[in-house]
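Q: C-alpha coordinates for this one, please.
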Amino acid sequence: MRGAEPETQAPYAHIVDEDAYAIAVYGVPYRMALGDTDQLKKQATLKREGKKDMKPSRVEVLQKDDGPVIVYLFPRAKEITKDDRKILFDAEIGRLQLGQSFYLEDMVYQGKREL
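A: Here is the predicted structure, written as C-alpha coordinates:
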Protein backbone atom coordinates (compact mmCIF):
# COMPACT_ATOMS: atom_id res chain seq x y z
CA MET A 1 0.00 0.00 0.00
CA ARG A 2 1.38 3.41 -0.98
CA GLY A 3 1.53 6.29 1.44
CA ALA A 4 -0.35 9.50 0.82
CA GLU A 5 1.18 11.85 -1.71
CA PRO A 6 2.51 15.04 -0.11
CA GLU A 7 0.47 18.14 -0.76
CA THR A 8 2.50 20.37 -3.09
CA GLN A 9 0.22 23.41 -3.06
CA ALA A 10 -1.50 25.37 -0.35
CA PRO A 11 -4.97 23.95 0.34
CA TYR A 12 -6.54 27.13 -1.01
CA ALA A 13 -4.48 27.46 -4.22
CA HIS A 14 -7.50 26.68 -6.40
CA ILE A 15 -9.39 29.79 -5.18
CA VAL A 16 -6.51 32.28 -5.27
CA ASP A 17 -5.50 34.06 -8.42
CA GLU A 18 -2.59 36.38 -9.11
CA ASP A 19 -4.75 39.39 -8.29
CA ALA A 20 -5.14 38.54 -4.60
CA TYR A 21 -3.12 38.27 -1.42
CA ALA A 22 -4.41 35.37 0.66
CA ILE A 23 -4.39 34.74 4.40
CA ALA A 24 -5.65 31.39 5.68
CA VAL A 25 -6.88 30.96 9.24
CA TYR A 26 -6.79 27.45 10.70
CA GLY A 27 -8.09 26.08 14.00
CA VAL A 28 -11.40 27.93 14.09
CA PRO A 29 -14.17 25.90 15.73
CA TYR A 30 -16.51 24.45 13.11
CA ARG A 31 -19.60 26.23 14.44
CA MET A 32 -17.87 29.64 14.18
CA ALA A 33 -16.66 29.00 10.64
CA LEU A 34 -20.23 28.49 9.46
CA GLY A 35 -20.93 32.21 9.71
CA ASP A 36 -21.92 34.49 6.89
CA THR A 37 -18.89 35.13 4.63
CA ASP A 38 -20.09 38.71 4.06
CA GLN A 39 -19.89 39.28 7.81
CA LEU A 40 -16.41 37.71 7.94
CA LYS A 41 -15.40 40.03 5.09
CA LYS A 42 -16.67 43.13 6.92
CA GLN A 43 -14.77 42.22 10.08
CA ALA A 44 -11.29 41.78 8.61
CA THR A 45 -8.53 44.21 7.62
CA LEU A 46 -4.90 44.36 6.64
CA LYS A 47 -3.26 47.38 8.24
CA ARG A 48 -0.15 49.12 6.93
CA GLU A 49 1.52 52.00 8.70
CA GLY A 50 0.63 55.33 7.14
CA LYS A 51 -1.74 53.81 4.57
CA LYS A 52 -5.45 53.14 4.33
CA ASP A 53 -6.58 49.75 5.70
CA MET A 54 -7.25 47.04 3.14
CA LYS A 55 -10.53 45.12 3.21
CA PRO A 56 -10.85 41.62 1.73
CA SER A 57 -12.56 41.36 -1.64
CA ARG A 58 -13.71 37.84 -0.83
CA VAL A 59 -13.75 35.26 1.98
CA GLU A 60 -13.97 31.51 1.41
CA VAL A 61 -14.58 28.81 4.02
CA LEU A 62 -13.07 25.46 3.05
CA GLN A 63 -13.93 22.24 4.82
CA LYS A 64 -10.84 20.10 5.40
CA ASP A 65 -10.52 16.76 7.19
CA ASP A 66 -8.86 18.43 10.18
CA GLY A 67 -11.38 21.30 10.35
CA PRO A 68 -12.41 24.43 8.49
CA VAL A 69 -9.98 26.87 6.89
CA ILE A 70 -11.10 30.47 6.41
CA VAL A 71 -9.30 32.13 3.49
CA TYR A 72 -9.31 35.93 3.26
CA LEU A 73 -8.51 37.32 -0.20
CA PHE A 74 -7.26 40.90 -0.44
CA PRO A 75 -6.94 42.73 -3.79
CA ARG A 76 -3.40 43.22 -5.08
CA ALA A 77 -4.57 46.48 -6.66
CA LYS A 78 -3.59 47.98 -3.29
CA GLU A 79 -0.03 46.79 -3.56
CA ILE A 80 2.02 45.86 -0.55
CA THR A 81 5.49 47.27 -1.15
CA LYS A 82 8.91 46.79 0.38
CA ASP A 83 8.30 50.04 2.28
CA ASP A 84 5.49 48.28 4.16
CA ARG A 85 7.75 46.65 6.70
CA LYS A 86 4.97 45.21 8.83
CA ILE A 87 1.41 44.20 7.99
CA LEU A 88 -1.18 43.60 10.68
CA PHE A 89 -4.05 41.22 9.96
CA ASP A 90 -7.09 41.83 12.17
CA ALA A 91 -10.25 39.75 12.01
CA GLU A 92 -13.28 38.87 14.04
CA ILE A 93 -14.83 35.41 13.65
CA GLY A 94 -17.86 35.09 15.85
CA ARG A 95 -16.58 35.90 19.32
CA LEU A 96 -12.94 35.30 18.35
CA GLN A 97 -10.69 38.34 17.94
CA LEU A 98 -7.62 37.65 15.80
CA GLY A 99 -4.54 39.76 15.31
CA GLN A 100 -1.34 38.67 13.59
CA SER A 101 1.63 40.73 12.48
CA PHE A 102 3.61 39.80 9.40
CA TYR A 103 7.09 41.19 8.81
CA LEU A 104 7.69 41.48 5.08
CA GLU A 105 11.38 40.68 5.30
CA ASP A 106 10.29 37.19 6.42
CA MET A 107 7.72 36.75 3.62
CA VAL A 108 9.82 35.91 0.58
CA TYR A 109 9.39 32.70 -1.39
CA GLN A 110 11.57 31.93 -4.42
CA GLY A 111 12.75 35.55 -4.46
CA LYS A 112 9.21 36.94 -4.56
CA ARG A 113 7.22 38.59 -1.78
CA GLU A 114 4.42 36.24 -0.74
CA LEU A 115 1.48 36.96 1.52
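A few notes: The chain has a mean pLDDT of 82. DSSP finds two helices and eight strands in the chain.
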